[in-house]
Amino acid sequence: MMSLMILIILIACNFIMAFVSSLAAKPHNYVIIENTFPADKIDDPKVIHFAKKYRERQFQLAFILSFLDLGLLIPMKDSSFMLLFFLLLYATIGANYLTTIRYIRKGHQLIIDNDWQLTTQPIQIDTKLVLEKNRKLVSPWWFSVSLVLILLLNALVYQQGMRDMGLMLLGINVLVWGSLFFTWRAIGRLPVRALTNDQQINQQYNDLTKFYWSSLSVFMSGLISLIVYIPLLTMTMNAKFFSFMMILELIMILLLCGASLWWLISLRQKQDRLLTSTTTFRYSGDDYYWRYGLYYNPDDRRLMVPDRIGMNLSVNLGKIGGKILVALVAVILVVAMVIAVVPLYILDYHPDPLSYEVKDEAVVLDGPFIKEQKIPFAQIEEVELVNHLPFRGIRTNGFATENYATGHYRLDGKPAILFVDHDSKPILKIVTKDRNYFYTNKKPVETKKLYQKIHQSGN
Questions:
Q1: Backbone phi, then psi, for 405, in 5-degree steps?
Q2: pLDDT of amino acid 242
Q3: Is residue 51 part of a domain?
Q4: Percent of the chain having pLDDT more than 90?
Q5: C-alpha angle with apex 17: 315 to 146, nearest 5 degrees?
């Protein structure tokens, strides 16, 4: 089931990426795939054919990659599955980027072959626009709503006895909230530029950008908090309501993605209608700085710049901060793969990955990337062999795959630490006052042997 869900997510990523990338083929500020065309050439058959081919290639690529993704349905060990997942994900990102680069060059060559080069015009300073650039920026006080929501939800988590989890989630949510507030500040600090000779259109264009982007930051700061907290708030609910809340969780995730995309596309359409209402568009030579789909201009003091699709912020690779951010993303992608694959590789191929030891009137449980757990016999209230884990549960730190469940969980409202291989039965359940422990050895006979030792120690 999990492999099917991951496959669906990966295929969805292919087509979402294809759709978002294909937006670059639709003129925005007279830019098509990072190349600025003359206003009277936007509807030229050659340009239309060029844009159409790019869109077709993006979706053809999505279909090819989705076909390759079906390899995830082949039965394999968890470590091999996760490695293949990451390789396919990175292949999607890489293939999409290389396709974009190829068509950026094709577009540039199309402009040269037809002698459509635009003359770079001097930057025009509109003093009134500069002074009133943030008049439609959403007030920062709206962020207080999401901050209060975070504190209230965290208080509910504390009431359910999940203090450690509540503290961790509070830190994560405050970090996300801070990142979105930083994004709001970056939007407010974006310098403005007179794109046309019409002062009114320039002001309206800027007002739209500032309002739409800043309001999206506020919206996301609240909805992300709900998405993060809802699974924890369902831990004490009955099974039927639990299932309902999980469906609600999925709907909210889809709402976040869909509403954000719809909001940004609406902004783009309104901006385009403004620019097409005038013939005085001013070209500032930006194509030179967007030759590889990324902005590189050491002379531009901005770290964050609007992308050319009109739906996001990009970094200026000409600044040291921009280089650090891009390098950090690459490091995160590699580290994520290592963190996911290495423990699973140990679980799959080590002869005794989930080990135990009885010493000093205590049992010690150990596993890959899990802190060793020493459980004194005197603290054990109950020990039993079960065939299934509790139905209602959530992972707070660790791994959860079709074959393994390791790390810190919360099962039936009580903290639990799992060292479980789902292919090995029975499961040893150790109950203490503070938390429960679930353990299986790869050899069921060893699990039963540990049960006997603990059972005998309590007599």
A1: -140, 110
A2: 61
A3: no
A4: 22
A5: 65
362 vs 374: CA distance, rounded Å: 6
The per-residue pLDDT for 216 is 92
- Quote the Cα angle for 182-184-188, to 5°: 115
Is position 398 within any domain? yes
Looking at residue 453, the DSSP 8-state letter turns out to be H
Domain holding 432, by residue range, is 355-457
Torsion of CA 196, 200, 204, 207, to 10 degrees: 100
- Asked if 302 contacts 315 with a C-beta cutoff of 8 angstroms, the reply is no
In the chain, the number of structural domains is 1
DSSP class of 41: G
| Helix/strand/coil for 458 | coil
pTM for the predicted model, two decimal places: 0.77
pLDDT surpasses 80 at 233: no
Who has greater pLDDT, 421 or 229? Answer: 421
Q: Is pLDDT of 458 > 70?
A: no
Q: Which H, E and C letters describe 402-419, residue by residue?
A: CCEEEEEEEECCEEEEEE
Tokens of 250: 């999925």
Q: Roughly what angle, to the nearest 10 degrees, separates helices 143-159 and 163-189?
A: 170
Alpha helices by DSSP H, 234-319: 239-275
Q: Tell me the C-alpha distance between 391 and 152, whole Å.
A: 27
Please report which confidence band the pLDDT of residue 237 belongs to, taking 50, 70 and 90 as the band edges: low
For residue 228, what are the contacts with CB-CB under 8 A and spacing of at least 6? 169, 172, 173
- 419 burial class (0-12, 13-18, 19+ CB within 10 angstroms)? buried
Structure tokens at 37: 């065309």
What the block records as the tokens of 178 is 């801070």
Name which of 336, 202, 187, 345 is nearest 277 in CA terms: 202
Closest-CA residue to 310 (of 15, 18, 26): 26
DSSP three-state, residue 396? strand
The DSSP bridge pattern shows strands 382-386 and 427-431 to be antiparallel
Q: What is the CATH number of the domain that holds 447?
A: 2.30.29
Query: What contacts 127, CB < 8 A, 6 or more positions away?
Result: none
**Residue 296 falls inside a structural domain:** no
Decide which of 344 and 159 is more confident.
Answer: 344
